[in-house]
Every structure is written in structure tokens, then in C-alpha cells.
Amino acid sequence: MLCPDCNGLPHLTVPGRCVNCSKGTPSISLLLCDACSIQLAECAMCGDTIDVSGALPPLPVKPGTFFVKKNEKDTGGKTSLKPGEELHITLPAQRWGADWSIRDYPWSCLSVKDRGQFTPDPGDWQNGTVTMIFAATSAGTGKIELEQNGRIAWTIDVKVK
What is the pTM of this model? Predict the structure, then answer.
């Protein structure tokens, strides 16, 4: 995305590379690809802050889908879901920090809808959050274990009834 000042400016038609993710851009004049420009809320050409609120995709939830939100303080807790409901776990993250990953989850009653992508905090492209989404599929119980730097760093007991 381009800021109002850069929109309409001429740029070279030689393909370039995004300085953030190294994916191709349509012009060497563009510092960022569209995805990184939106994620960082920066103009792809000059790097100035831009409003991307209309360009962000909607939450990955179907209208009418009930979901439970959990975050960093909920580690070690419990939650209950019904089949068809979702569990959204949002944890703090850093762009170049340790990635969160799913170590274990009760696959007999949950499925993974989204393993999470880094979302920067407004005005701070280095710090942000990761939201992982699990969908309740059938009755059962178990524990979700998330790890960071190879160690279990967040857990929650889940009951689907």
C-alpha cells in the first residue's frame, strides 16, 4: 500500500525485493511487499506510517461462531467448549523473537484452525501478538501445550462437552 504522497509517483518497472520478508515486489522502488506494508502499517515506497484499517482481513471467524478468548495470564487454567466453538489463544510475541508453536493438543476433540501469525502492535512493528485458533470437533478432554524456545511455556486444560 502507498501513502497519499507516494500514490501516483512514477517508479521503476524493474522487480525488487521486500526488505522485510524478501518476497518479490513489482518495482525496485518499493521497499515492502503489499502483505508486509499492511502488516507493518507502512507505505511500501517511503516507509511512512499509513492507515491500513480497511485493508486488514477480517477475523477468521464465521459470523455466529462462538469463541472463547484466552491470553498469557490464563496459562495453567481450564476452559470448556461445545462442538463447533473455537478457542482463541493470544500471546505476546516479538517479530524476531522466539516463535510460539503447538507442542501437543487433544486432537481427538480439537482441530487446529490457525497456528498463528505475528501481528504487530500499533506503532511498534517489533512487538505484538500471535493468536492460535483451535476448533472443538467432538466431546473429549485434554491439554493444550504451547512451547517457546523448545520448552513448554503455556498450557490450558480443555473440556469439550
Answer: 0.60
Is residue 142 within a helix (H) or strand (E), and if so which, with residue range? strand 140-148
Q: Which fold has domain 67-160?
A: Immunoglobulin-like (2.60.40)
- For residues 71 and 120, what is the distance between their CA atoms, to the nearest angstrom? 16
Q: What are the strands, taking DSSP E only, across 14-139? A: 16-17, 24-25, 67-71, 77-81, 86-94, 100-104, 110-114, 118-121, 124-136
Phi-psi category of residue 112: left, alpha or beta, with phi > 0 → left and psi -120 to 50 → alpha: beta
Backbone angles phi, psi at 40, to 5 degrees: -90, -10
Please name which of 101, 94, 90, 83 lies closest in space to residue 151, comparing C-alpha atoms. Answer: 101
Residue found under cell 473429549: 140
First to last CA, the chain: 45
**Over the stretch 23-55, which tens digit does the pLDDT of each residue have?**
777 778 888 877 777 777 888 888 888 877 655
What pLDDT is stored for residue 146 in this prediction? 94
Residue with cell string 513489482: 26
Domain boundary assignment for the chain: 1-57, 67-160
